[in-house]
Backbone:
């Protein structure tokens, strides 16, 4: 349970962590499991850290039901680095398809142009990134090395609640998803995914760790200019220890994975419990916003993100007062991204339902006082 | 002071941290300075983290006397990623000079060949990386974009106690130093250095953070294939926040910098105190090894590292017993790198003189019992 003195933190990332995870990290700081070493001080080649690393990978594979023919890589650089690392590893300098649904996929497409031919197969720019283009409208290439989507747009609050079945759309390419801001918030249908990558600093834990989960047959295609430390084949061959991995971030991610596995909601446990809670949290907040008359969310009902909920005060003259009073009420980091404006509540896995309820209660009260 | 229950950790990296730093990190874990947030949970755009980041940079600039016309970048990927990122940013695809003095500089030279012409200006391979080639013997190119050295070879235990003055050697190129394993252990003569880079996991703190300190006139030369997140100009223009930085590692580095500034040895303080202590530690260990008759160090006397001290039992049949008994005596991670064999004691800034004394006492005792 969140203790009274800790406010609710709605940061889009780096973001709130489960308090149990922080308590464990504090308790382990001077000596991990009687080893006399902080995890920060362990050689990545030593048996202590290798046990931590292997357990984290096993737990993540379990939580996300990652098939045996997919590798899990623990890398660095975040999704922004992956925007380059991915085409270096997968495009072979040829044709690729990008679906643009917000700032993040736009950035990905732009960066990829350094390494390959980029076809923008669909874009929701005309809708100001508030709707998702129907799968049927995507103009896919005949010979793309891959099709890239951002399955949850952190800034615009647009989420793909179903991933496309590319084969049914006439493409033989593997689907690549940037799932940074909703990984581990719901299951992934691996039958539709070739590569999933995610910066860790939203649902997994610390900034500075990047997860790449990819089908083994996609390894070994790197361009000669790919840095060795970012060549998926080399990283995979060295169990993510070709360069010194971000060991402490890996350990913290492992604590988060164990926390996910412990979660219960009624009959549900683990990721299913997390997903049910995320649905309940999102329903509570969207439901209140839509009925309020004071606030609004502008994203299409079928693609509203469960994780990142941008919203606006209909009278934006109250914005500063809203933020100041929210902070005073223990509700932190609600300011919207500068490119969208307004407010944004990021309600990742670590945000309890009570935190969303506290936000809704505050919003109601604020609306009454300023309506 | 190190409490009795914490053993001495001689890991080459990730490596021991000052206990005061770990205690501070544990105390801050649930709420940094009354903010109600762990540093792990802070947006990198928020005023709390920006204050942490700026203080760390200011302190490092102070400790290392970094001139105002040098940028300090907080990056990711470690020295192995820098082996590619550096030539991407600085070679302009042309000629470069590399001095090979051990495994690390060898790796750097090999990786650079993907991006530019590499001239190996000198190598100590014939000496099995135990001597440093005289500056006068270096065969420098007329038109190199830079000259690269590894100023402390972690694996072979070879350190440059003076950096070359390239102008006096007839080169107009800037000197680039990979100083990963001795940064902040001694001053850097910036009049001789264009770029210094270092993985943080030896003397600075956590794995997953890479420092790049470079003269401003060297910015803006990146090859078009450079990933945006690793383009020095872009990173510098965004105060190391173009992508989400490894925020917690940055914070921990800041705690280490503050610890360095607090150090006192007699009249000396800060980095001068650290350096004096490092000299005393190295003298103690080398002095004992050389006089022991039981152990030996094979590195030339003029280039022995103060940080990484590889040594051998003259009778290697005792190696396993040495390691097992050392561990039982609270002296951890003394096994040498597999490419060199024998033992290695890494005695970075965080290792107190008492730790080296404990090692020497154990080595004496072991020699008596097995001599």
Residues:
């Amino acid at each position: 349970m969140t203790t009274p003195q800790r406010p609710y933190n709605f940061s889009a990332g780096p973001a709130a962590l489960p308090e149990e995870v922080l308590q464990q990290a504090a308790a382990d700081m001077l000596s991990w499991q009687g080893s006399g070493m902080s995890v920060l001080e362990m050689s990545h080649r030593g048996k202590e850290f290798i046990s931590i690393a292997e357990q984290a990978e096993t737990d993540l594979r379990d939580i996300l039901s990652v098939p045996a023919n997919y590798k899990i890589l623990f890398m660095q650089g975040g999704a922004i680095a992956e925007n380059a690392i991915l085409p270096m590893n997968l495009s072979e300098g040829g044709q690729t398809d990008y679906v643009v649904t917000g700032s993040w996929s736009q950035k990905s497409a732009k960066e990829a142009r350094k390494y390959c031919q980029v076809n923008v197969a669909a874009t929701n720019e005309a809708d100001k990134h508030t709707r998702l283009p129907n799968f049927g409208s995507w103009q896919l290439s005949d010979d793309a090395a891959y099709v890239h989507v951002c399955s949850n747009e952190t800034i615009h609050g647009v989420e793909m609640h179903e991933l496309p079945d590319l084969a049914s759309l006439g493409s033989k390419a593997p689907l690549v998803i940037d799932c940074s801001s909703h990984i581990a918030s719901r299951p992934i249908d691996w039958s539709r995914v070739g590569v999933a990558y995610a910066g860790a600093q939203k649902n997994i834990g610390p900034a500075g760790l990047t997860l790449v989960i990819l089908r083994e047959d996609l390894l070994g295609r790197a361009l000669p200019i790919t840095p060795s430390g970012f060549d998926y084949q080399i990283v995979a061959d060295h169990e993510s220890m070709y360069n010194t991995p971000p060991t402490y971030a890996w350990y913290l991610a492992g604590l988060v994975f164990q926390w996910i596995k412990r979660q219960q909601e009624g009959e549900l446990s683990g990721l299913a419990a997390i997903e049910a809670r995320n649905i309940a949290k999102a329903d509570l907040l969207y439901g209140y916003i839509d009925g309020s008359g004071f606030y609004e969310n502008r994203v299409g009902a079928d693609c509203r993100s469960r994780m990142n909920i941008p919203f606006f005060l209909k009278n934006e003259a109250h914005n500063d007062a809203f933020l100041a009073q929210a902070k005073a009420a223990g509700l932190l980091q609600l300011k919207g991204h500068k490119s969208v404006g307004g407010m944004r509540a990021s309600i990742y896995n670590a945000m309890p339902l009570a935190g969303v309820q506290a936000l809704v209660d505050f919003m109601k009260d604020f609306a009454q006082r300023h309506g």
